[in-house]
Each structure stands twice: as C-alpha cells, then as structure tokens.
C-alpha cells in the first residue's frame, strides 16, 4: 500500500463507542465520521432510505472510489420500530452500499457493532422479516411488539439479525471472494454516556440479565481497540466471526454449548476424504 493513507468510515461517530473508535482511527489515517450530531463530517438519518442514500453519496464523493475500513457503530436501544430500521436495515444499507469501495482497497475490512444481548432469544417473526430483507414487514412486526408490551425484544432481535447477516455475507463471493473481511463485535454493558445516564435505574436488572464477571459496566476502551484492530490492515484472515467482548457474559451463560455443533459432511465428501487419507498413508 506504500505511503498512501488509509481511509475509514465510522457511523455513529458522534457519541459513545463510535466516537471512541473514530478518535483512535484518526491516528491511523483519514476518518469520515457519520452520525446525527453536528460534529461529524456526514449527517444522515439511517432510519430512512433517503438518509442512507445521502450518507452513501457523501462518502463516495469524499473518497477516490476506495475505502479501506468501515466500522458500523450507529445504533439505538429504544423499544421503538425505528430501532430495527437503524440497527439492521440502516446498517446493512451502508455495508452493501460501500462494499464496492471497500473491494477497491488492497486490505479492506468491515466490522459491525452487535451486542451481548444477543445471548437472549429475540422475536422469531422480527428475525425472519429481517433475514428476508422485508423492511415493511419488520417495521409492522416491531410496531406490534410495542403495542403488545414486548418492545424490549426489538433491540436484541435487530442485533441477532445482524449476527446472522454477518455470518452469511462474510463468506459470500462479494465479500470473502473479493478479499473484504467482515466481522462483528458484541460488546457487553460498557460505560458509554447513554448507559451511565440511566445506570442507577437499570443496574439491578442488567446485573441479573447480563452478568459480567470482569465487572459491570465495563470500560469502553478495550471494545473500541478491538473494533479498530478488526478494521485495520493487520486483520487479513479473521472473517465471519461474532466476537463477544463482554467481560465474560458469553462464557458464563453459555459455557461449552457453542461447541455442541460440529462439522457435517455430505457422503461424497466423506468418500473423497477417505480416499485422500488412504492415498497419503500409502505414498
């Protein structure tokens, strides 16, 4: 890559974790900050298609057709339908819309901010609508969840859907096939301004729902550092991972269960591996 400076885009860069990431990336190259506040380079409302299009147009206009790193940190936790519009559909629109610019880089990386709340089950109906890409259906489902007193499911459902999308997209020809690494970080409860604003009110519930052996709330810095690494040129071989940077919540609550599912092979693949194994033993 020579001396050419890397170009990064960070959404949600006007506050919290996104702002911490943008500040760290500024030491590594040019950062195009995006958000709703007046302190960012690009102001855009990602809950609406027009806002998503505006962000894409502005980012493309600022670059030379190349983007090296993307950190999708924009999100909200409210029990409202807008949460699914921003956290899932807005995030996917940015990732898909900037994929070609990433592919033009020699070492492109994208990383999404998920959540440790995905360790809990969400709304299956909302998840299905997201995976199908049906935003109208997802919004209608979210509105119904709010009306029936289940709005708390919307946030974690949006992040569960993101996890599914990252796993599927990361190994597709459009991403891995073009050398673009794509991962997600699922932070635990960390001491952002938004969390601390209501901490005394929410503390008892969160300590039970998402226990963190390393302490709650956790520090913002280590999560931001992890996101920066995953968006850096040093990360060229990790892709499709949902990394729980959560103070131990995942290990404490799920234990060894993630290791309960192993690879399964089709009959012809088993035959081919047996033949190759015998060939190696006799060669």
Automatic annotation (TrEMBL):
Is Oxidoreductase set as a keyword in this record? yes
Xref: InterPro entries: NAD(P)-bd_dom_sf, SDR_fam
The similarity annotation says: Belongs to the short-chain dehydrogenases/reductases (SDR) family.
- Classification via Pfam families: adh_short_C2 (PF13561)
* SUPFAM superfamilies referenced in this protein's UniProt entry, alphabetically: NAD(P)-binding Rossmann-fold domains (SSF51735)
Q: Which Gene3D superfamilies match?
A: NAD(P)-binding Rossmann-like Domain
Its lineage opens with: Bacteria, Bacillati, Actinomycetota, Actinomycetes, Micrococcales
Key words, A-Z: Oxidoreductase
- Protein name, please? NAD(P)-dependent dehydrogenase (Short-subunit alcohol dehydrogenase family)
């Amino acid at each position: 890559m020579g001396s050419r400076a890397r170009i990064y885009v960070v959404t949600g860069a006007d506050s919290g974790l996104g702002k911490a990431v943008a500040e760290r990336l500024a030491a590594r190259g040019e950062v195009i900050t995006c958000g709703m506040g007046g302190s960012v380079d690009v102001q855009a409302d990602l809950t609406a298609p027009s806002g998503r299009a505006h962000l894409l147009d502005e980012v493309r206009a600022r670059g030379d057709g190349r983007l090296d790193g993307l950190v999708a940190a924009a999100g909200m936790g409210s029990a409202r339908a807008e949460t699914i519009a921003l956290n899932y559909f807005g995030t996917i629109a940015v990732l898909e819309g900037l994929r070609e610019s990433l592919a033009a880089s020699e070492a492109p990386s994208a990383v999404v901010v998920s959540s440790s709340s995905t360790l809990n089950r969400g709304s299956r109906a909302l998840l299905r609508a997201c995976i199908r890409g049906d935003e109208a259906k997802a919004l209608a489902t979210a509105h119904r969840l709010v009306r029936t007193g289940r709005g708390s499911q919307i946030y974690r459902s949006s992040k569960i859907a993101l996890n599914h999308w990252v796993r599927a997209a990361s190994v597709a020809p459009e991403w891995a096939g073009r050398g673009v690494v794509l991962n997600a970080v699922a932070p635990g409860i960390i001491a952002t301004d938004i969390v601390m604003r209501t901490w005394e009110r929410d503390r008892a519930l969160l300590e039970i729902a998402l226990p963190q052996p390393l302490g709650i709330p956790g520090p913002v810095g280590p999560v931001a550092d992890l996101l920066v690494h995953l968006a850096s040129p040093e990360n060229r071989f990790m892709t499709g991972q949902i990394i729980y940077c959560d103070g131990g919540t995942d290990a404490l609550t799920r234990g060894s269960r993630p290791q309960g599912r192993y690879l399964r092979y089709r009959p012809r693949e088993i035959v081919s591996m047996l033949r190759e194994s015998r060939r190696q033993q006799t060669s």
